[in-house]
Design goal:
about 775 residues, 8-stranded mixed sheet, globular, Aldehyde Oxidoreductase, domain 4, disordered N terminus
Amino acid sequence: MAETPTTPYATVRRALKHDSGEKHVSGTAVYVDDVPEPEGTLHMAPGWCRGAARGRIVALDLDAVRAAPGVVAVLTAEDIPGDNDCSPSIGGDPILADGEIMFWGQVVFAVVARSRAEARRAARLARIKVEEDAPTISVDAALVEDATVLPDYQFRNGQPEAALDTSNRRLSGVMRIGGQEHFYLEGQISMAVPGEDGDMFVHCSTQHPSEVQHIVAKALDVIEAGVTIEVRRMGGAFGGKESQANQWAALAALGARVTGKACKLRLDRDDDMIMTGKRHDFRIDYSVGFETDGAIKAVDMAFAARCGCSADLSLGVVDRTMFHADSSYYYPDALITSRRMRTHTVSNTAFRGFGGPQGMLAAERLIDAIAITLGLDPLDVRKRNFYAQGADITPYGMRVEEFATQHAIVTELEQTCDYRARREEIRAFNAANHILKKGLALTPVKFGIAFTLPHLNQAGALVHLYQDGSVHLNHGGTEMGQGLNIKVAQVVAEEFAIALDKVKITATHTGKVPNTGPTAASSGSDLNAMAARRAAETIKERLVGFASDKYGVPIDKIVFRDGHVLIGNEPILLGQLAKAAISSRVQLSATGYYATPKITWNRQTATGRPFLYFAFGAACSEVIIDTMTGEMRVTRVDVLHDVGKSLNPAIDIGQIEGGFVQGMGWLTTEELVWDDRGRLTTHAPSTYKIPTASDVPEDFRVSLYNSLGNPEPTIYRSKAVGEPPVMLANSVFCAIVDAVASLRPGVIPPLDAPATPEAILAAVDAVKAARVP
């Protein structure tokens, strides 16, 4: 747990509330839709073809749209002066469709009107004639057609084919893992305000302001310096605003350019779910060779992802799936391959975990299958295959240096959650009950921290110290509710030894900190807090040098403490020293920059180090299922998670709890369904079921592992916490598998994710009907 501070000026490692927490619950937090609108602001709505998912546009009649009440302008691809593309990197994502429909919901035109209601009504008046082609919807169909958005990729370690052939036992199977809708509380929204000389200022709900700046500048055919993006906060994002905000910002800016007025574009919930990407769903074909004690000898895992109609971020997402196909387990010989399948559905995108959860769940399926086949406790099989001394190299060649941390976490949780006694209690319960069955699973997490594209591992910050001792802080990260700003502010306050209320955090702004990467990959604090710390250190060095010269005191005798600066034995308020320094023309403004070290991954050769370190954790979940209905409840969850030396335990525990429940939703209740015409049928909370308060585990116990600190020199030896907790929810899915498997020992339940009641009931029926091997 956190160290107890001895003074209010010691801010790091304190369990402090979110800096905007009171604003969130009181409704006073300002989001893009709350920013005061300039006089005459216009509103926009997207227009699309509601009858086709794939085909050539042969006629586009917008006369009725233009004639509708309140309409000021109607924009098509022809109105874009620059590049009609909002892709984050590879291309193929038109801002407005130009002659072709690639998925149901693709935007063909945009309406600009005096009010949002008028724009939305007018958008429905278009007449779009499409020469339809049959859409490819599923991964299986895309595999048959051999349709991909990017080349195939693989990791190979050792001689997997030979090792599989010589293993004592071998299992093969197929697993399907569904996607997930982000369901952020604040939908996609941008407001663009035109300025002088063609400049554009955009308020945008985005995780990647610099990329939005780049996309808007390209679309308008202006220099990037003429476009400014500001993000005060987002109402959730979860990866869904890493690249997906680009299109809506570009459309708002285009509307502002054409009309000369501020333009706001806010999607409603249905349109947001239809028009924006999801978590990738996968088909995994696997073979695993193992010995009679459960030790894995070789694996062959083939991942096929539904990427949608374009690449978007699928290169990195599916790579990370492959990086985490080992979960926490050593594969002596391995072949891990991936295919990125093209379908006529919205292009899938980043989602918390960025492909890692799918890879790890596939690994847990291997372990459960081995355990059920051999009649062993799944936890024993997991522990037998953990990385260890001499068995510490991943399939992609990186050494797992902290494997002992994983061992310690699992051992401690096994004891504190009373795993062995509860296993026996559940065995007795299941023997006595024919309808209700319980399941128990303890699963590990090992999640790599860093962007696997090395150039994204950098951040900047800007810090000003004022004459009253207060500090203005700006950094390149974005706040989406995760508590990044409070952590960075804690670090800066700690550096100056001032109270936290002396640090003013301001909106992320491309004119203050430029050329930033996205706030993603769980690296927000690692990157931005370090950059802010370096900026603060630069100012401190200047102050110390000034004080040393002015007072004739050695540098090593000048210390920042409790809101003061001790110059020898004489304390002076930080503000007083700052005022004196300013009078002597000492600069008290500084930028800070940080680039993550040791990242050497080369994708072309599949060599090098993709991660700075791993975050570890473990969860034990207990469930009860009704074998007559497929209904399920999570009755108890115990979590022990490694965050290094926590910067803020309250924030970290909140992230763990939230991540777990979000992962549980992905694996149990959240199901995306397309019909055979390519139309998403689950595009509202009436048909798409995220977890609610009643779904939270009845007994939910979360603890932070008592870490000695990150062995890597991260900010105050902390570890990232944003994404790893999602994968703790694998324990829920594995517990459901355990419950179903109790019906007929030795039979592997054919359960895919999400484990909805329908899926559980089908697995129950299949297990009952199966022949025992």
